[in-house]
Amino acid sequence: MITESIIKELINDKLQADEMYLVELKVELGNKIQVIIDHFNGVPISYCIELSKSIEAGLDREAEDFELEVASAGIGQPFKVKQQYIKNLNREVEVLTTEGIKFKGKLVEVKEHDFSVEVEEKVKVEGKKRKELQVRKVNCKFEEVKQVKDIISF
């Protein structure tokens, strides 16, 4: 049976040497293997093909058949690993907390156990008729967040 640990063993050295990182790895029933990778500057399709061939070379299709998909992390998909937060520093993100609160802002800091987002809000200021736009920093612990994803702006 093909396991996640077997696949990790096949790809870890190559990913590290090429400064890539593993975002997600799934091995489902019927040996359906899905490998999602990323890099701070993006992942070219040619690298996905190269990694796919490397995995295939390490497995024996005669002994055990499998289906293999190697892809880069998609734009607009929820972040799964800390490197994705770092990659998206100073970009707009959408945060959904475990309590169901959703907000948008600029990802400004990533630490060991948490991250910070600058959120713009219109606030009523005493003595003024109009609300003013103010920026406040929201700190979020990774375990208190259901999902975070980048916002695409054109």
Write a compact overview of the structure shown.
This protein has 154 residues and is α+β, with helices and mostly antiparallel strands.
Report on this structure:
With 154 residues, this protein is an alpha+beta fold. It folds into 2 domains: 4-72, GMP Synthetase, Chain A, domain 3 (2-Layer Sandwich), CATH 3.30.300; 82-150, SH3 type barrels, CATH 2.30.30.100. The protein contains 3 helices and 8 strands; from the N terminus they run αββαβαβββββ. The chain has helices at residues 4-17, 45-58, 82-87, and strands at 21-28, 32-38, 67-72, 92-97, 102-110, 114-124, 131-141, 145-150. Strands 7-6-5-4-8 form a 5-stranded antiparallel beta sheet. The chain has a 3-stranded mixed beta sheet with strand order 1-2-3, with helices on one face. A hairpin with a 4-residue loop joins β4 and β5 (102-110). α1 (4-17) packs across α2. It is elongated. The model has no long low-confidence stretch (mean pLDDT 94).
CATH topology of the largest domain: GMP Synthetase, Chain A, domain 3
CA distance, first residue to last residue:
45 Å
How do the strands line up in the largest sheet? Answer: 7-6-5-4-8
**How many structural domains does the protein architecture include?**
2
Structural class: alpha+beta
Query: Judging by the overall fold, what is the CATH architecture of the largest domain?
Result: 2-Layer Sandwich
The average pLDDT score comes to 94
Tell me how many strands there are: 8
Q: How would you describe the shape?
A: elongated
Q: What order do the SSEs take from the amino end to the carboxyl end, as H and E?
A: HEEHEHEEEEE
Strand content: 35-45%
Compute the number of helices: 3
Rounded to the nearest angstrom, the radius of gyration is: 20 Å
Detail the poorly predicted runs: none
Amount of helix: 10-25%
The largest sheet, given as strand count, sense and whether it forms a barrel, is:
5 strands, antiparallel
At the first level of CATH, the class of the largest domain is Alpha Beta
